[in-house]
Amino acid sequence: MRRPTLVRPHLVLGSPLQLLLLAASFALAGYAGVRLLAGDWFQVALWFVGAALVHDLVLLPLYAAADRAVTGALGAVRRREWIPYVRVPAALSGLLLLVWFPLISGRVDERYRLVSGLSADGFLARWLLITAVLFGGSALLLVLRLRRATKQRPPAAH
What are 76-135's pLDDT values in tens digits? Predict the structure, then answer.
């Protein structure tokens, strides 16, 4: 009976350029963290914990359920390849909504005008237009892909 050979783990470091870039990114992140926490560190920490909890307990189940609904609606095996054409524009649109929600909802119009000197009108219309362009572009890519696939398919023998 043969004894199994022990494989010793070895450390993979990468190239010197990768190590330099990694060290520089850690230094930059450390500097940004020190500057961010120099003010009201408790409020910043509270915001990070709250954001993590809201994401994990509220947002993740919501977009997982939405993804399951889309997957179920496109459930046929042949149509599973269509799912990324819905996921990508939905994710980008959702990210834009998440980032710009205060301005899209109109809740901070006056504060935005006082700080920037600009009107907050039009954020909802622009977000809807960007969402429509994202889904329209995705649909166009899907149609082009399907058209190319049908042209490359050999004709059926009779």
Answer: 555 777 888 988 999 999 999 988 998 898 888 888 888 888 888 889 999 999 999 999
**Residues 113 and 144 placed together within one structural domain of the fold:** yes
Q: What is the DSSP string of the chain?
A: -PPPPPPPP------HHHHHHHHHHHHHHHHHHHHHHTS-HHHHHHHHHHHHHHIIIIIHHHHHHHHHHHHHHT-SGGGGGGTHHHHHHHHHHHHHHHHHHHHHHTTTHHHHHHHHSS--TTHHHHHHHHHHHHHHHHHHHHHHHHHHHHHHSPPPP-
91 part of a folded domain:
yes
* Domains in the chain, number: 2
Global pTM exceeds 0.70: no
> Is residue 86 located within the same domain as residue 130?
yes
